[in-house]
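Aim 2, interim progress: modelling of the adenosine-5'-triphosphate-bound target.
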Amino acid sequence: MNLALFGGTFDPIHHGHMAVARAALADPRFALDHVEFVLADRNPLKSDWPITSFEHRWAMLTLALEGEPRMKANDMERLPPESKLANYTIDTVRQLRKTLAPGDRLYFLAGIDSFLHIRSWKEPERLLRECRFIVVSRAGATLQEAIAVLPPGTPADRVALLDGVNVPVSATRIRQAARAGEPLGPYVAPKVAEYIRRRRVYA
Ligand code: ATP
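Predicted structure of the complex, ligand included:
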């Protein structure tokens, strides 16, 4: 089995995220069986906004993935409410690896903007040994930049570049649009837009 983890805060899950997963699933180089969206409870590198509750983000994620048989929502990074911990990709990848068979191949999907910070993630060299990365294009960064940030000596086969995803949507922009009462249809699935509106997630 070939599996790709797609980690993120998904605050909220949007068309850009879905395009990333679809492009990875369609690429014969990876022969993926499915993509697992791993919802981060607390991202140690993203403490600059009061993050929306895990429950709201989880509800939106599961609504967006309804009817997508090759995309699954994964809540393994959920932390107990009293916990002061954060989620680290290396811990998630190692935990998930234990559930795989020896011949299974594990990938981690990341947008280029996120991957460019890999050297500030926990144990980047070890992470690049534990899984292969699929680094996806995003407006404003070139895929060649991803190669430049690799720790010295990283074997070339640890990182594959996935070009051609060009959906200029960001969760930050969507939260602003929601606060301004703008329509969210251009950015998120109809059920997610409805959830945000009804539950006043970003009001
Ligand atoms: P923000 O705009 O607030 O930074 P985000 O959508 O980038 O939000 P996450 O939900 O944590 O933040 O993103 C999860 C992953 O999806 C990251 O690897 C990010 O690079 C990637 N990603 C998000 N949006 C896009 C997009 N439009 N195109 C390609 N990759 C994306």
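The chain has one domain: 2-175. The two ends are 42 Å apart (CA to CA).
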